[in-house]
Specification:
Shape: globular
Order of helices and strands: HHHHHHHHHHHHHH
Strand content: under 5%
Number of domains: 1
CATH class: Mainly Alpha
CATH superfamily: ABC transporter involved in vitamin B12 uptake, BtuC
Radius of gyration: 20 Å
Largest sheet: none
CATH architecture: Orthogonal Bundle
Length: 331
């Protein structure tokens, strides 16, 4: 099968799998529903209890999980182009840490509303983004190494601030703070904003897919072909950081999706960003949707933090990819 047909087939299969993952999320739970019952509930018919459960509880949460998984995977794919490192991750630049500092800070002050926590998390993420970019760009230029090191330092500082807040938090607030840190899609809220911004982010990234393909071959090569490398790097950084901030604001700190999913899609499809970006977006949405479904059903009625499940999946996959990296470099 020709390579382009194989790639398109993989994307079509991912789109089909996305629909299946949402169907599973809507049917699974303490009130188990068949696909027919889910279909009737979505159309406003069937049993009133099933309709209320699907439309008011499971559908918003499933769509929010899918959107945030897609945001993290898309941000990871863009960050790997920016740093020219297939094992790069958007969280390494301190965006997640900044969001955690903002969210836990308002929790510590007694703010319990979902909107207040999300607003503080978004402000914290944007603050960390501005701090990293400002420090890395201190002399008017920056390199991938300088940006990475600055992000690691800011992330470490945010981690220390989080540890301090957890150590002084009252016991009745500690569980909620820890749950947010490990990822919690139950507080995601209205999924329309993450979905719309996911679509906008994907379309924006695809508009620069040719430039991204050239940048993967090196900044000097891209510059010789007329690409304004500095402007493209700035766009990539702010787009990836904004997508990460929105995802973290909605579902908390969920790791490894931005690292593992783009790399797996790259192994399956190659490094053409026109195919890789939409494939990673779909795969990230599928992964977080299924992980969230498991998180709320595995030991129901208790819920697990979804970040724990993504880490249990991501850690062995990451170690496997890391073990393969030297072999690929030698070939």
């Amino acid at each position: 099968m020709p390579a382009h047909r194989r790639a398109l087939l993989i994307i079509l299969l991912l789109a089909l799998a996305a629909g299946v993952s949402l169907l599973v999320a809507l049917g699974a739970g303490s009130l188990g529903l068949s696909p027919t019952q889910v279909h009737d509930a979505l159309l406003g018919g069937g049993d009133p209890v099933a309709r209320q459960v699907v439309q008011e509880l499971r559908l918003p949460r499933a769509l929010a999980a899918f959107a945030c998984g897609g945001l993290l995977a898309l941000a990871g794919a863009l960050m790997q182009v920016l740093l020219r490192n297939p094992l790069a991750d958007p969280y390494v630049l301190g965006i997640s840490g900044g969001a955690a500092v903002g969210a836990l800070g308002v929790m510590l002050l007694g703010v319990g509303s979902t909107f207040g926590i999300q607003a503080a998390a978004f402000v914290g993420a944007l603050t960390a983004m501005g701090l990293v970019f400002g420090l890395a760009h201190g002399d008017g230029s920056w390199t991938q190494t300088r940006l990475l090191l600055t992000g690691v330092i800011v992330a470490s500082g945010c981690g220390a601030a989080v540890a301090l807040m957890l150590s002084i938090a009252p016991e009745h607030q500690l569980r909620g703070m820890l749950f947010w840190l490990m990822g919690d899609a139950s507080q995601a809220g209205d999924p329309s904003v993450p979905l719309l911004l996911l679509l906008a982010g994907l379309l924006t990234a695809l508009a620069f897919a040719r430039e991204l393909n050239l940048l993967t071959r090196g900044p000097q090569f891209a510059a010789t072909l007329g690409i304004q490398v500095a402007r493209l790097r700035g766009l990539l950084y702010f787009l990836a950081s904004g997508l990460t901030a929105l995802a973290v604001t909605s579902v908390g700190s969920v790791g490894f999706i931005g690292l593992v999913v783009p790399h797996l899609m790259r192994l399956a499809l190659g490094n053409d960003q026109r195919l890789l970006l939409p494939a990673a977006t779909l795969a990230g949405g599928i992964l977080l949707t299924l992980a969230d479904t498991l998180a709320r059903t595995l030991i129901a009625p208790r819920q697990l933090p979804v970040g724990v499940l993504t880490a249990l999946i991501g850690v062995p996959v990451f170690l496997f990819l890391l073990a393969r990296a030297p072999q690929r470099e030698q070939t």
